[in-house]
Amino acid sequence: MIPPFASPEIEAAFDVPDSQARAGLLVLRQLIFDTAAQTPEAGRIEEALRWGQPSYLTPETKAGSTIRLGIPKGARFALFVHCQSRLIPEFAAAFPAWDRFEGTRAVLFSHPAEVEPIRHGWLIKRALTYRISPPLEIPA
Description:
Blueprint: H1 8-13, H2 19-37, E1 46-50, E2 53-57, E3 67-70, E4 77-80, H3 87-94, E5 100-102, E6 106-109, H4 117-128
Antiparallel strand pairs: 1-2, 2-3, 3-4, 4-6, 5-6
Helix pairs in contact: 2-4
Protein name: DUF1801 domain-containing protein
């Protein structure tokens, strides 16, 4: 089920000129909600705007680190996390040579088909439980 947007402003943030970028951002959005639904310890997910970008937080449990979606300079679309967290380094170690990164703050995408539910769902789950869970085991 596709969740409704939390506000017209958030919906407007997905109205980007590049149709492939919009499609990719919507795939990531759905993956965030699907992963959250399978991660009860994260609690309710709040969709908000942060820095003009759709952002996903765990306001009740405060279990997670904010996830943002947006358009970076070096790719069509991206999934952003807090740059001072261990999230991207852990993800890169778990899945070496699979993705492009912008430092320690983003996974970069060129096409919606690059979003992989298992791999990127792992990163999303890790972000949603960042403050309450030890680092996740690297899948085999």
